[in-house]
Specification:
8 helices, alpha/beta, 3-stranded parallel sheet
Length: about 210
Amino acid sequence: FAALAPPFPPTNGHRLRTWAMVRALAEDGHRVRLVTFGTAEEQAAGRAELEHLCERVEVVDAPPEGGQGLRRLLALGSRLPFGAWRFRSPELAARLRRRLEADGVDVILCDGIYNVQNMPAAPGVPVLLNKDDVAHIILRRYLNLERHPARRLYGEMEYRKVRRWEAWACRHMTAVLVCSEEDRRILRALCPGVPMPVIPNVVDTDHYQPRPGA
C-alpha cells in the first residue's frame, strides 16, 4: 500500500478511507506492507496502531507544507499538475522497488493520482488506484465560485493539467477503486475501458458511537 499520508490517526475523510481499507485487508488475512509519506509527528502518533495491522511500515518524509505560493509558481512550467509535482519522490519510488524485489508482493495499492508517478515502471504485478474523489471535478467546482482574476487564471491552467493527468493515471492502472457510482460515471467518460469497482467510503459505526447527550 503506497499511501500519500499515514492512515492513522484517521483525522480526515481521505485517511478514514485508507484506514478502513488497511484494516479490512489485514482482518481478511492479507499481509500488508505500508509505504507512506508522513511527518515525524505523524509517525509518533500512529506507528503502534499501524504496526499492529501491517507486516511492515516505512515512512518517507512528507513534502514540506511551507512556501506553497512560490512552489506553485515554480511548478507552472511543468506539465505535471502541482500535486504530482509536489509529491514526486525518488525515495518513495526506490522503497517500492526494493519491496517488490525483496518481498514477493502480489499487488500494489496506489493511493491517489498524485502518487502514480512514484510507481515502478514495470512492476510485474497489478497496480490498483485508490481514489477518494475526482480531482478535476473538485477544481471545476472551485472555479465556478472563484472571482479573483489571478486565481481564476491559475486555476484554469491547473484544471487542464489535472484533468489530463487524471485520465492518464487511470488509463495506466490495472483497475481504479472508485468510492461511488457517480465517480465511476465521470471517470468512465474520461477513460473508458478501465475496470472501476466501487469501494465505498465507510465509517466504523461500532467505534464512532455518539456520546451520551450528543
